Amino acid sequence: MAGFRTPAQGDFHAYANLTKQQGDHLTRLGQWSSNECAKVDGLDGLLVLARAFVPDISTFFSDKFAQCQRGMGVIDDKIQRTSAAYTKVDQDNAADLRNLYPQSSFSFPDISTLPGASHLGNFTDEDVELKKLDDADGTTSKSIHTALLLARNSTDLKAAEHAFQWCTGQSLVELMLTPLFGEYGRLSYLGDAYDELGDAAYTVAGTLRKGSWRLGSEWSGETATNFDSYLFRWTMGIGGVGDAAKIAGKAFKDGYHVVVGLVWEALSEIGKLMDDGIKKLAEQFAEMMAGDAAIEVVGLGPEDPVADVVAGIWTADKIYDMYKTVRLIINVIGIIQTIFEKISAAVDAIKEGVQKALDSLESPPPTIGSLIDDVEQRGFEFEKGGGWSPTMGASRIALLPAA
Q1: Which residues constitute the domain of residue 329?
Q2: Euclidean distance between CA atoms 122 and 332, whole angstroms
Q3: Which residues contact 149 (CB under 8 A, 6 or more apart)?
Q4: In angstroms, what CA-CA distances link 186 with 209, 256, 259, 400?
Q5: Residue 84 belongs to some domain of the structure
Q6: How much of the chain, in percent, has pLDDT values that exceed 90?
């Protein structure tokens, strides 16, 4: 067949084996996404908003890795059929080969014509590491939880709670403490989980890239160009999934730092309120209760009308003082709840940050020439090097072929 230069049969088989190995890696990445990236334990209180979108984000990535894993089986089958067809050199097989790989919809360079291309790629599988993640209940989460427990168990708060409920019908604990109970480290955990997922996807993309580059460097002709174009879509698409995972990881990490900063701000306000208004209200409530009891003892008991009048005047005076203190407490609670609103907004911003990455699928992917430039200048795992922008690269997901 004129215009054909083919790789050795052993190289076809080596590449087919490499795709099977990447399929195994992609299965693990899908499992990681379904498990580590879907954990919602501890997302309570103001974090409960995340319980709704964490599983949805996880499912998106699980589905993409499942698609990529199926794709490895498709590539393996195509490579095996190509290898078998090349053992029969006739015109009919040439037509079959042209139909085996989709016709490229864009101009794709002939890798076999690049000087030294055969020395760049290889069929060696690379380790795909998914490091063990730190527990979600780390030092920061524990410190916040301890501060909340100390406040909730405070003797002053328990006394002030009775007075506040008596005056307002509401609970101090529910208004200013309960919303803050949650495992804030879960946000950081999810950030790390997606960051690991992104790096692992980059490794798989790079391994496939160097294998297809090696095969493409030994192969010329229309079928070879279509193969290069087809694998380009897979490797760039998998890299795009890695980009989206990196964006998700950053969104969770950024959200974690913002939320924790706001939580400490709220705890600072609560601490000042505990030392001032709540302590004062507890003392006023105790003084009122002790005064009423003393008046009853001095008088003739509960049925003494004089004692009742004195107690009424005493109580009214103390209630007025308590009322003023309660008003001060309510004002500070307003400040605290404004911080709570900012925390909720920061949690919601995580979802928006990830959604931007998914929306970018509608954007044009990087140019085809970037494959040559990136590989030659940065290597096959060019996404891992400095200067790569996941935000710009996430649109490559749209290049993934159906599988």
Answers
A1: 9-101+136-399
A2: 66
A3: none
A4: 34, 8, 12, 31
A5: yes
A6: 58
